[in-house]
Amino acid sequence: MTHTVMRIALTTHSVNPRGGVVHALELASALVDEGQDVTLFAPAVAGETLFREPPCRVILATIEGSQHNTVALVDARLRALKTSVKACDPHSFDVLHAQDSISGNALAELTAEGEIAGFVRTVHHLDHFDNPRLAAWQTRAWRDADRVLCVSEVWTREMRDTYGIEAATVPNGVDLNRYSTQRTPHDERLRQRHGIDGRGPVVLAVGGIEARKNTLGLLDAFAELVKHHPHARLVIAGGASLLDHDAYARAFMERVAKYGLSQAVSVAGPLDDADMPALFRCVDVLAMVSLREGFGLVVLEALACGTPVVASNIAPFTEYLDNSLCCWATPTEPASIADALARVIDGRHRTDFNRAVPALLDRMSWQASARKHLDIYSALLASRSLPTL
User: Fold this and answer.
1) Which of 190-194, 197-201, 311-315 has the highest mean pLDDT?
2) d(CA 204, CA 267)
3) Please, where in the chain does CATH 3.40.50.2000 lie?
4) Do the Cβ atoms of 348 and 323 come closer than 8 Å?
5) For the chain, how long is the longest CA-to-CA vector?
6) What does the mean pLDDT of the chain come to?
7) pLDDT tens track for 260-272
């Protein structure tokens, strides 16, 4: 389907490498490749820049003041985005598309004030908030949208069955120019920097130390793995989150010490964007054993780099993976995770990198995602132009 050129505004909540931000950047790039006019809005404090510059117009919304708690932090980013979009002649955009609750609320307020005709919202996943204001913000960001999209069928069903919202599923993709099996001199430098010396297998987790990521469960499994692989290493990358995970992170580090694994566990934190493909190639297995996930984008990235994956046997992973693409684990059972890691490391489970992985990566492209987005955008614009009775 051929699309006319649209002026599209994509909004995201951060300049840091979280899944939703990566989605926004990759979608922006793919839409530009489709000939579209794209502007990306992201909130940033003074001196911050996007972790990766997309080939489109980028407007960083300046965050004012200091924030001492999560509510204040969210509010400041919401205000910054609203002010920034409003200053850019928002009526001139054909489509405004929020990737998260923070920017979704900015667009919801602009809609209520008549500054824009409406907006699209992608729900990657929803969180539980005890704070009523955070919970209300999360609800408003999808409730007030003209069109809701989800990156997996499990969340499309959740939006329909729990909230009565008919969402459309538009999966993530993977950039095969960025993520590949092609080794580079940077790989060896990264090995040296993180002490990956080849003495034992290296397990990688991406996304930081969070309850949703099941990092404590993974640690318990790793403690079992070390009994049979005494030189094994666990590297945890990422974790640039706006939410407060400090208590969980402290409990994790206390358990690391209790197990006596301080030398075996490395918390790398957020890495430079160029480091991630190299890091995937430097490890033996990616552990993606989340308890709840929107899609699990790093699974595709790891597979594209030739790295086997241990994944939770829950949706959304079960929607696009099978036994030829990953080794399954029950995320609530550390013994199951440990067994899956051992099966991959010992070669008892082999990923089909010859046929199954290339077929998956060919199917899950950002270009396909962008074209589906454009179909949805076009249908939305057509519905707005229909005469009303």
Assistant:
1) 311-315
2) 10
3) 7-173+365-382, 185-363
4) no
5) 73
6) 93
7) 999 999 998 778 8
Q: What is the pTM of this model?
A: 0.92
Model pLDDT for residues 60-73, shown as the tens digit of each residue:
999 987 777 889 98
Q: Whole-angstrom Cα distance, residue 379 to residue 7?
A: 15
CA distance 137 to 109: 11
Domain 185-363 sits in CATH 3.40.50.2000: yes
Helix (H, G, I), strand (E, B) or coil at 327: strand
Sheet holding 285-288, edge to edge: 265-269, 233-237, 202-206, 285-288, 309-312, 327-329
Judged against a pLDDT cut of 80, whether residue 348 lies above it is answered with: yes
Give the per-residue pLDDT at 289.
98
Please give the single-letter amino acid code of residue 33.
D
Q: Is the distance from CB of 274 to CB of 284 less than 8 angstroms?
A: no
Are 306 and 322 contacting, i.e. CB atoms less than 8 angstroms apart? no
Q: What percent of the chain has pLDDT over 70?
A: 96
Tokens 């991959």 found at = 344
Distance CA 60, CA 55 (A): 15
CB–CB of 274/252 below 8 Å?
no
Residues with Cβ < 8 Å from 41, sequence gap 6 or more? 9, 10, 11, 12, 59, 61, 81, 84, 85, 103
> Is there a contact between 114 and 90 (Cβ–Cβ < 8 Å)?
no
151-172 pLDDT per residue, tens: 999 999 999 999 999 999 999 9
269: amino acid identity, one letter: G
Q: How far apart are CA 269 and CA 119, in angstroms?
A: 34
* Tens of pLDDT, residues 86-116: 999 999 999 999 999 999 999 999 999 999 9
Amino acid at 168: A
Q: Using the 8-state DSSP alphabet, how is residue 92 labeled? A: G
Give which of 19, 64, 72, 17 is closest to 43, Cα–Cα.
Answer: 64
Task: Give buried/exposed letters for 201-217 (b at 16+ CB in 10 A, else e).
Answer: bbbbbbbbbbbbbbbbb
CA–CA distance, 344 with 334 (Å, rounded to integer) = 16
The dotted CATH code for 7-173+365-382 is 3.40.50.2000
Judge whether 256 and 266 are in contact, CB under 8 Å.
Answer: no
Q: Pick the most confident of 13-22, 44-53, 337-346.
A: 337-346
Statement: residue 388 has pLDDT above 50? no
Structure tokens at 351: 């990923």
